[in-house]
Design a protein that fits this description.
CATH topology of the largest domain: Glutaredoxin
Oligomer: single chain
Largest sheet: 7 strands, mixed
Radius of gyration: 26 Å
Structural class: alpha+beta
Number of domains: 2
Bound molecules: coenzyme A
Amino acid sequence: MLKVISYSIYHSPNAYLGAVLLDRALQGIPVAIERRPICIPKTRGIKVADLVGGRETPAQSAYHREDCRRWATRYGIEINLLPPGAFEQRAEHWRRSSYEREELPARAYYASVGSGKEATLDRALFHAAWVSGRDVNEEAVVRDAIASSGLDPDRLLARAQQEVVGQKLRESLNAFDRDGCPGVPTWIFDGQRFWGKDRVDAVVLAVKQALAGGVTIRPVTDSDCEWVSAVVRERWGAPIVVSRGAIHHPDQLPGFVAVVDDKRVGLLTFHVNDNECEVITIDALIEGIGIGGALLQQVTALARARGCRRIWLITTNENTRALRFYQKQGFVLAAIHRHALAASRQLKPSIPRVGRDGIPLRDEIEMERDL
Ligand SMILES: CC(C)(COP(=O)(O)OP(=O)(O)OC[C@H]1O[C@@H](n2cnc3c(N)ncnc32)[C@H](O)[C@@H]1OP(=O)(O)O)[C@@H](O)C(=O)NCCC(=O)NCCS
């Protein structure tokens, strides 16, 4: 499985925002995230900028607050920034503590690795710092985060004190330096560094490019039955699909499954009738890595082999991505069936009135490719 290494510090709002966005963006994509929370040794200073040998001017600090707030609003992420002066008060505390800054929560995280709840704890620690606005260097706060993750605070904190855990944290800090990370969050993928909450798209693109070569297509088999039903229900809003006034049950149709790294990531269903092949559904569960193209190629080859003279499908007026995709795959517009969705809704009432991008869902667009 591919792996993204993620360096973070729990009291960095940029690391928090980046962690939320990366988790969101990689959902459903077969890639592992290796989380490496680090701490700031007092010998280096007390701010994230100190850690990497920089200096943060008051203007830069004020700008970071403004930018984090803007970023959180833009992506709908809850954040509560510390009131002015609170950081300085906490910093005094951190200076006097026997731990380095963010050492305790990072130790708790490494102590949890292998429990299966490490990602939940990571999120809980960030949540404590940036939603609840608490100081995650306080033991009570770490305890609460551990408990909310379904782990035992006493046992985990005892483990967090072990030398092996301290060693893991030091290794992560050394690796952060060795990898030349300019700050947090930094993600490492395929030997490349991606620094900053605004680089999530670039990480995702790199991951997708790495996955693209590994897409394989195979026919749907009986063992896929439950999965096909689940995909169709989730993506088409019901177990049935309506096209040109006919009801189809995709889970009873032949089809193809796209697989990446042993994970099913795409589905196409079709039926052949009168020397014509109609694609009934096509879904890429990871977009933009060639799954849709590979599925269409496979069904086109099958239709040719069966002597079909055309392959066709119905899409809808608001599905601009699909319209672009099919045309780039060699399909042409064959007909526009205006207001056809009104009749389809009689057969499938769950068809919404408004579709993608807020466009009214109204017409069927018939697309075809001569074979
Ligand atoms: C429409 C849909 C099936 C397309 O599937 P897809 O897997 O994203 O399609 P592909 O990856 O083959 O192609 C999409 C784009 O990714 C690009 N792409 C594919 N592999 C790539 C790679 N390795 N690197 C970079 N770009 C790549 C393709 O060139 C294409 O770009 P273009 O539009 O600029 O030509 C998909 O968007 C989807 O599931 N949509 C929701 C369901 C839906 O609407 N179904 C159709 C109903 S009629």
